[in-house]
Design a protein that fits this description.
This protein is α+β, with helices and mostly antiparallel strands. The protein folds into 2 domains: 166 residues, 3-Layer(bba) Sandwich (FAD/NAD(P)-binding domain); 120 residues, Flavocytochrome C3, Chain A, domain 1, CATH 3.90.700.10. The protein has a 4-stranded antiparallel sheet, covered by helices on one side. Strands 1-2-3 form a 3-stranded antiparallel sheet, covered by helices on one side. Helix 6 packs across helix 7. Bound molecules: flavin-adenine dinucleotide.
Amino acid sequence: MQKLLAAVAVSGASVRPDARATALVRGADGDVVGAIVRADGREAAVRARGGVVLATGGFINDERMLRLHAPELARCKYRVGAEGDDGSGIRLGLSAGAAPLNLGMGSISLPVTPPKAILKGLLVNGQGQRFVNEDAYFGRLGEHALLHQGGRCFWILDDATFVRPDVPRKVAAVGETIGELERELGMPDGALAATLELYNRHAARGEDPLFHKKRDYVVPLEQPPFGALDCTVEGSLYAAFTLGGLHTDPDGAALTPAGRPIPGLYAAGRTTACLAAPGYASGLSLGDGSFFGRRAGRAAAARAGR
Ligand SMILES: Cc1cc2nc3c(=O)[nH]c(=O)nc-3n(C[C@H](O)[C@H](O)[C@H](O)COP(=O)(O)OP(=O)(O)OC[C@H]3O[C@@H](n4cnc5c(N)ncnc54)[C@H](O)[C@@H]3O)c2cc1C
C-alpha cells in the first residue's frame, strides 16, 4: 500500500475519497463514457476519457447477493472484506451488459492453528470419518469441510494431544471412551472408533497412508479422556470472502456473455472472477487484483491516448 500510495501521489491523479459510484454512463454507441458519483450529499457525473475501472471489491457484505449466488458462504460467521464490499460494482458492470463468472465461488478458511501441535488431532465429519490431511492449508480445510462435508465437522484429540487453539473453539464433546464421544456427537455407532483404529494402527509407525499428513503430526490417539472441538459452521469460526465477479479479459476489459469486450468498461480485483476460483490460496486475491489491476489501468489509459 505504501508503494501504491506513493505512486498515486506523484501521478497527478485526483483522488476523491468517501465517494460512491451509483451508475455508469453509456454513450449512444453503448461505450461506457463515465459514472455518476455521489459525494458530500451531491451527485456528479464524471467523464472517463479512457474508461471506467470498477475496483469495488466483492459481495461478501451483501446478504441478498450472497444468499442468491453463494449460499454456503452466507453460513460463515466471519465475513472477510471492507464494509463497502456490497457487490454494487459488480451490479454496475452487469447493468452495462457485462457477464458474471463463478459467482458461487469463495475463499473459506477454517483456522485451527496455531499452535501447530493441534495438528496431531483428527478432523472428522459428522459420520466420524476423516476427509483431508489435517495439516493442509486452512483454506483447503474450510473448502472441504463446508462444501463437501456440509460444515458438520469435529477436531478429535486425546488427553496427550489436547491443546486449545488460539482461535477459540468450543469443546463439543468429551468422553472416557471413543464410544462415548461418538454418542455425544450423534455419530453412527462404531464409525469414529473405526477411524481411530485404522489411524492409530499406522500412526504407531508414524504413517498416515490415507491422507499423508506430515510425520511430525502423526501419533496414535489412545489416551483417555477424548475430546472433540467444535468445527461446525454454525458453532465455530469459518472466514469467507467471494471469488466470483465480472468476466474480464487479461487486460481487465469487461466481457459480454458473448465474450466481446464492452468499450470503456474495465474491472479488477474482487469485482472480477478470481484466477483462484475454485481452490483459493493466500495471496491470490491481492496478487490477481494488483497484477490485472495494473493491466486494466494501462489499457484504459492507452484508450485515452496516454
Ligand atoms: C484480515 C484479512 C486478511 C487477508 N489476507 C489476505 C492475504 O493474505 N492474501 C490475499 O491475497 N488476500 C487477503 N485478503 C483479501 C484481500 O484483502 C482482498 O481480497 C482484497 O483487498 C480485494 O481488493 P479489492 O481492491 O478488489 O477490493 P477491496 O480491498 O475490498 O476494496 C474495494 C473498495 O471499494 C469500495 N466500494 C465498494 N462499492 C463501491 C462503490 N459503488 N463506489 C465506490 N467505492 C465502492 C469498498 O468500500 C472498498 O473500500 C485478506 C483480507 C482480510 C480482511
